[in-house]
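During the second half of the funding period, the structural biology subgroup turned its attention to how the target accommodates small molecules. The most pressing case was adenosine-5'-diphosphate, which had performed well in the primary screen but for which no bound structure existed. We therefore specified the complex as follows and requested a full 3D prediction, including the ligand pose.
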Amino acid sequence: MILMKDVYKTYANGVTALSGVNVKIDQGEFVYVVGPSGAGKSTFVKLIFREEKPSSGQIFINDINLSELKERKIPYLRRNIGVVYQDFRLLPKLTVYENIAFALEVIEESPRNIRNRVMDVLDVVGLKNKAKSIPDELSGGEQQRVSIARAIVNRPKIVIADEPTGNLDPETSLDILKTFESINEGGTTVIMATHSKAIVNQFKKRVIAIEDGIIARDEQQGEYGYEV
Ligand code: ADP
Ligand code: ADP
């Protein structure tokens, strides 16, 4: 479960990105975070995996109070949270296989486990035949599926995606959405910041709309609600 209590975030330059956010997201939910550019969506998702700290208020992730989380414990939090970015962030000189295995090697899994788990997640995203390719040899949609595989290989309870389809064409975007849906069906919480009206209105989920740093709407089976 993710709980935010009266969360404020003001950056060092004085910009207040969030002001007084209260929200509860249960394990297994699929949530879109929508709103205009600069509204605070990225800040909202970054607070969850502790890429940013709140200026005030409290954030709990599965009963862990992030304000009390020691720096050296942050890796344990991050193991439970997979993150997918708009720009994929793959290591260009490593193969698909190596990009995904990397996330497991840093936590000292056995070679056999690594192999099994990498091939399992490549199967989930439909890219078993691309294990030996390097990112440049793949389409944008395929690269994003590699980054999703990397995000789930540690079997996190939560997957956060910040504009995951922002660099992809509409058809590829729908495929990516289906991949997130199947991950969510396995019980993983999915939180996706998005500007895709087509996705939000087609695959109906909970919608949290952030405007000017506050939660303007929070609806089950919500609509995108903006023109673009
Ligand atoms: P969104 O994802 O909805 O576009 P952001 O959370 O990225 O919104 O940004 C919210 C506000 O905070 C914007 O005014 C943005 O310029 C500002 N902001 C975001 N990140 C930083 C940062 N690291 N330092 C200063 N200001 C920032
Ligand atoms: P793991 O089994 O994941 O390797 P350990 O049992 O070795 O974790 O835990 C090491 C320390 O980190 C313990 O003090 C544990 O309470 C703490 N810890 C484990 N998971 C988390 C988490 N998600 N967030 C914060 N601390 C954690």
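Two results from this model are relevant to the next phase. Residues 11, 13, 15, 17, 35, 37-43 surround adenosine-5'-diphosphate (ligand 1) (CB under 6 Å). Helices lie at 41-48, 74-79, 96-105, 111-124, 140-152, 170-185, 197-202.
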